[in-house]
């Protein structure tokens, strides 16, 4: 019997009811597709075929021009679900399902869905420092490259380390930028960032380095004063750590420790070799031109382009220089006496040690009264105790110019000499000068009175010969006469007519010749006048003088009656003789009466 054969056509189109993400325990991502059989005959395909292609890989790729259909697999006609495995995470897929009979494939139903996320397979990109300050850095970055995100990138993990590798910041950031504070100026930092897809973390990318801006430097460290001598101190120090900037120089401040008026001075150290910022290098410098045996306080400051930092250490380090030779004694002064000089001085400005003695040096510099004098070449030395500040030079010549200086000494030797001071001893006192004899006055051929002066003087200290003229005035006018001689202009009746230097002797002087001698006017004498003429000696050196006049000699000008003075003097002498004779006679008379009345011895 012949069986009848039914002609079966291609199946109808199944209906996808659900397309959801699928995650294997192994971490593999995929999609689970569920469908219903076709509703039009034949309603029961023998098989179903599942295919797909990528709409957007990693939700960022554009695949519109290059979409490749991929077969995921087939199932029998009684199965209505299928897991499409090994798909890329975070990617949108278009999934197709179609049925098959013996006549072939029917139409496909399709639906799109996005796979689940996984851990990022790439680090953030384009990491850079967008802003740097002294104590902060702003970092920015972008998401991992497309294809390595594997999810929406929910956050970023940021780790910042200093140059030694110590972590100084570690945190979770939601966005692609972060400013990190509380950093150290002029320091290098490395940043590493990784992306997170919720609970799934990616890998850190390579470290990116950045440097904070410079600031004023910190104080130098380890300041020491390891050595010194009479005029210098060696200073050692190390760079600030951290330096906070590129050190371009150092300043060494120093001052005398115990001087209230000492203004700090500085030594400038410039840097060209890069060693100034090396925290492992010990720097050194020498302070020169210091005073010996003096305590100095020292500090060091560093400098960057941002300015000079604080000094170090606080309080400063102190060191004393070695003992040296002293500077010159100060304020040397010499005051004169007749045969001695009082020398006073003050301690050296820079003693440079303990003053153990002073050397006082002197020599004769000039003798105005001695034409033949030649200055001495060598000095006479007197040693004085170190605690002294004065000395009296005795047994000197009067009216003599002396040159004096003082030198201080320490254990290192003599220092610098003081200024040289010249001073005269005072001239001899007036009572030490030889008293002149009354002048011998002779009449010149024209009858004017003349005095002859020789160059033989009784004292070597006499520098001038003086001639004084004093007119004899009536008693009623003598009150107007001065006690001391001045010039003719000051008192025409009692004046000095001439001052003659010993260098001008011998000389013949006519009294009243109307000439000037020294500073004195030898005024003409008045007719019919009587004058007392005196000669004087003067020692005048160094602005100091002593003067002594002798007894007078009489001069009468024309018109005075001859003998008038002799008559007066004779009368006075006669009267005196009469009185003396009367007194003698009285004494003789009383003596005789006394003898007559005395008893006679038997």
TrEMBL record:
Transmembrane domains' residue ranges: 565-590
Key words of the record: Disulfide bond, Membrane, Repeat, Transmembrane, Transmembrane helix
SUPFAM superfamilies, per database record: Fibronectin type III (SSF49265)
Disordered as annotated region, ranges: 21-40, 103-131
InterPro entries: FN3_dom (IPR003961), FN3_sf (IPR036116), Ig-like_fold (IPR013783), R-tyr_protein_phosphatases (IPR051622)
Alphabetical list of Pfam families matching this protein: fn3 (PF00041)
Fibronectin type-III domain location: 10-121, 123-215, 219-324, 325-429
Polar residues: bias regions: 26-37, 103-113
Annotated protein name in UniProt: Fibronectin type-III domain-containing protein
């Amino acid at each position: 019997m012949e069986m009848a054969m039914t002609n079966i056509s291609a199946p109808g189109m199944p209906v996808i009811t659900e397309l959801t993400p699928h995650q294997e325990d192994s971490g593999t991502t995929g999609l689970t597709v569920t469908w219903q059989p076709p509703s039009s005959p034949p309603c029961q395909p023998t098989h179903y075929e599942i295919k797909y292609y990528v709409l957007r890989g990693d939700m960022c790729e554009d695949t519109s021009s290059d979409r490749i259909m991929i077969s995921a697999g087939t199932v029998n006609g009684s199965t209505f679900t299928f897991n499409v495995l090994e798909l890329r995470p975070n990617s949108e897929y278009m999934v197709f399902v179609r049925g098959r009979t013996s006549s072939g494939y029917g139409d496909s139903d399709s639906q799109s869905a996005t796979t689940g996320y996984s851990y990022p397979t790439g680090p953030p990109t384009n990491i850079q420092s967008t802003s740097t300050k002294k104590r902060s850095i702003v970092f920015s970055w972008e998401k991992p490259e497309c294809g390595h995100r594997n999810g929406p990138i929910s956050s970023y993990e940021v780790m910042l380390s200093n140059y030694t590798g110590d972590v100084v910041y570690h945190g979770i950031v939601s966005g692609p930028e972060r400013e990190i504070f509380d950093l150290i100026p002029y320091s290098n930092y490395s940043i590493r960032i990784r992306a997170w897809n919720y609970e799934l973390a990616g890998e850190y990318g390579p470290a990116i380095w950045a440097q904070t801006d410079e600031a004023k430097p910190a104080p130098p460290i380890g300041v020491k004063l390891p050595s010194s001598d009479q005029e210098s101190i060696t200073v050692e120090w190390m760079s600030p750590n951290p330096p906070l900037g590129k050190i371009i120089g150092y300043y060494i401040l120093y001052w005398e420790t115990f001087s209230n008026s000492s203004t700090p001075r500085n030594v400038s150290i410039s840097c060209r070799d890069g060693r100034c910022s090396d925290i492992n290098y010990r720097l050194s410098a020498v302070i020169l031109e210091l005073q010996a045996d003096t305590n100095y306080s020292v500090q060091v400051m560093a400098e960057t382009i941002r300015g000079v930092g604080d000094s170090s250490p606080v309080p400063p380090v102190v060191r004393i220089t070695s003992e040296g030779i002293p500077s010159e004694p100060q304020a040397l002064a010499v005051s004169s006496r007749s045969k001695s000089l009082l020398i006073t001085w003050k301690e050296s400005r820079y003693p440079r040690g303990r003053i153990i003695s002073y050397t006082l040096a002197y020599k004769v510099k000039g003798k105005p009264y001695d034409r033949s004098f030649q200055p001495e070449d060598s000095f006479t030395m007197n040693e004085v105790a170190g605690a002294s500040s004065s000395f009296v030079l005795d047994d000197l010549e009067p009216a003599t110019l002396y040159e004096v200086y003082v030198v201080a000494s320490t254990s290192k030797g003599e220092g610098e000499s003081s200024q040289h001071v010249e001073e005269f001893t005072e001239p001899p006192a007036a009572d030490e000068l030889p008293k002149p004899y009354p002048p011998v006055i002779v009449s010149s051929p024209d009858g004017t009175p003349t005095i002859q002066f020789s160059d033989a003087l009784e004292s070597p200290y006499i520098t001038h010969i003086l001639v004084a003229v004093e007119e004899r005035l009536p008693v009623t006018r003598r009150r107007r006469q001065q006690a001391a001689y001045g010039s003719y202009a000051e008192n025409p009746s009692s004046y000095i007519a001439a001052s003659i230097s010993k260098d001008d002797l011998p000389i013949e002087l006519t009294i009243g010749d109307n000439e000037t001698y020294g500073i004195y006017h030898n005024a003409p004498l008045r007719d019919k006048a009587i004058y007392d003429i005196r000669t004087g000696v003067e020692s005048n050196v160094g602005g100091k003088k002593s003067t002594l006049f002798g007894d007078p000699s009489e001069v009468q000008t024309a018109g005075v009656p001859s003998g008038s003075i002799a008559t007066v003097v004779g009368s006075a002498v006669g009267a005196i003789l009469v009185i003396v004779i009367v007194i003698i006679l009285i004494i003789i008379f009383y003596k005789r009466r006394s003898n007559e009345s005395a008893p006679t011895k038997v």
